[in-house]
Automatic annotation (TrEMBL):
Record-given protein name: 3-oxoacyl-[acyl-carrier protein] reductase
PANTHER family: OXIDOREDUCTASE, SHORT-CHAIN DEHYDROGENASE/REDUCTASE FAMILY (AFU_ORTHOLOGUE AFUA_5G02870), SHORT-CHAIN DEHYDROGENASE_REDUCTASE FAMILY PROTEIN
Region (Disordered): 192-213
Family according to the record: Belongs to the short-chain dehydrogenases/reductases (SDR) family.
Keyword Transmembrane attached: no
């Protein structure tokens, strides 16, 4: 049994980010052609494109504002010109900002999280679901967070955006499921990335003690779950919120 994405095309938003680039590599190694979305880091996007092409896959880079419907539709059109219709959408991009208390958090930070979590999800569905419905096959994978179950101080803008995203994904799963399109979420814990390896910041004893597996997860472990949900192996899983956090958060029944 193996994950085979041959002849599939996947879009990863925020593909130049710490987790996004590993997702892009992983889906490409499973056989998918990759649309590499970036916001500002064109150099990283081009480097990732070269790497994916070295695997024998097709890849294109696409710039878009994920908080704007017209920009996302333009991105869709470019991808279709370069790679064909998109089968798999991984919503990974999110606006970055400085976390602080509710009393001190700027109102525009809440707006940025709503736009980049909720509205990105809505716009991606509007742009890419119709062709999936025609083909009776498709995958949406949203990258959520363990934070939505923790609700720690200073997380309010991020958590509110990601909780809104959760609502969109659960309803979308019910609305388009009859067309054999699955809609799921992966919720990473505090994950070891390339930046951590470069800076020797992989360990955090205080965090690790709260995790049943007593360690932080890796970017590859996140990408592995994304690849599974994007594949035919997960054809009967939809509407799921799946923490990849070593048991640090556990959804209840």
């Amino acid at each position: 049994m193996q994950i085979d994405m041959t002849n599939k095309t996947a879009l990863i938003t925020g593909a130049t980010g710490q987790l996004g680039r590993v997702m892009a590599r992983t889906l490409a190694k499973c056989g998918a052609n990759i649309a590499i979305h970036y916001r500002s880091n064109e150099a990283q996007a081009l480097q990732l494109q070269d790497e994916i092409q070295s695997y024998g896959r097709r890849a294109t880079i696409v710039h878009a504002d994920i908080t704007n419907l017209d920009s996302i539709v333009s991105m869709k059109n470019k991808i279709e010109e370069q790679l064909g219709t998109v089968d798999i959408v991984v919503a990974n991009a999110v606006v970055q900002y400085k976390w602080t208390s509710i009393l001190e958090q700027a109102p525009e930070d809440y707006a940025s999280q709503f736009d980049s979590c909720v509205m990105q999800s809505v716009y991606l569905a509007k742009a890419f679901a119709p062709s999936m419905i025609e083909r009776k096959w498709g995958r949406f994978v949203g990258i959520n967070t363990e934070c939505v179950m923790q609700n720690f101080p200073t997380q309010s803008a991020y958590v509110s955006g990601k909780r809104g995203m959760d609502g969109i994904y659960r309803i979308l799963a019910k609305e388009i499921g009859e067309h054999q399109i699955t809609v799921n979420q992966v919720a990473p814990g505090w994950t070891i990335s390339e930046r951590d390896r470069e800076n020797n910041t992989e360990r955090s004893e205080s965090y690790e003690q709260s995790v049943p597996l007593k360690r932080r997860g890796t970017d590859q472990e996140i990408a592995n779950v994304v690849a599974f949900l994007a594949s035919d192996l997960a054809s009967f899983i939809t509407g799921a919120y799946i923490p990849v956090s070593g048991g640090n958060v556990m959804p209840s029944i």
